[in-house]
Automatic annotation (TrEMBL):
Top-level taxon in the UniProt lineage: Bacteria
Function field: An aminoacyl-tRNA editing enzyme that deacylates mischarged D-aminoacyl-tRNAs. Also deacylates mischarged glycyl-tRNA(Ala), protecting cells against glycine mischarging by AlaRS. Acts via tRNA-based rather than protein-based catalysis; rejects L-amino acids rather than detecting D-amino acids in the active site. By recycling D-aminoacyl-tRNA to D-amino acids and free tRNA molecules, this enzyme counteracts the toxicity associated with the formation of D-aminoacyl-tRNA entities in vivo and helps enforce protein L-homochirality.
Reactions this protein catalyses: a D-aminoacyl-tRNA + H2O = a tRNA + a D-alpha-amino acid + H(+); glycyl-tRNA(Ala) + H2O = tRNA(Ala) + glycine + H(+)
Domain comment in the entry: A Gly-cisPro motif from one monomer fits into the active site of the other monomer to allow specific chiral rejection of L-amino acids.
Protein name in the entry: D-aminoacyl-tRNA deacylase
Subunit structure: Homodimer.
Claim: tRNA processing is one of the keywords in the record: no
Family membership noted in the UniProt record: Belongs to the DTD family.
Cell location: Cytoplasm
Record PANTHER family: D-AMINOACYL-TRNA DEACYLASE 1, D-TYROSYL-TRNA TYR DEACYLASE
Classification via InterPro entries: Daa-tRNA_deacyls_DTD, DTD-like_sf
């Protein structure tokens, strides 16, 4: 699994003109799932993500996690994060999981995050053409790949 995690002061997801998710202070997560991903990736990434110390403490130092600041969270599926661009100029998406694998893992990841965070999270709509809006706070953007844990 690959995640691009952005600290935001606000974010939203709209599909066909309808607001699907919206948060103020928190994290917007773009999530790419590959064929080789499984339960271990889901659990590890959820815990890593919600415990990242990327929010400022009272002294202005990034020292607090999403849990500590009681921030919002939106998770958006984005298969293009699995793009390979080594050859030519057209990205290859061969590593991206097909919907029969990706959808259950995406839903499992959302459930895991909600359990670890102790509250509901916002989402996008899998496979839809989404309009994702955000104000990146900092900017703070962190990329995590579960295949590079060591």
């Amino acid at each position: 699994m690959r995640a691009v995690i952005q600290r935001v002061s606000q974010a939203s997801v709209t599909v066909e003109g309808k607001l699907i998710s919206e948060i103020s202070k928190g994290l917007l997560v773009l999530l790419g799932i590959e064929e080789a991903d499984g339960e271990e990736d889901v659990v590890w990434l959820s815990k890593k993500m919600i415990n990242l110390r990327v929010f400022d403490d009272v002294e202005g130092v990034m020292n607090e996690s999403l849990l500590q600041v009681d921030g919002g969270l939106i998770i958006v599926s984005q298969f293009t994060l699995q793009a390979a661009v080594k050859k030519g100029n057209r990205p290859s998406y061969l590593k991206a999981a097909k919907p029969d694998i990706a959808i259950p893992l995406y839903e499992r990841f959302i459930a895991q995050v909600e359990a670890d965070l102790g509250k509901k999270v916002g989402t996008g709509v899998f496979g839809a053409n989404m309009k994702v809006a955000l104000i990146n706070d900092g900017p703070v953007t962190i990329q995590i790949d579960t295949k590079n844990r060591e």
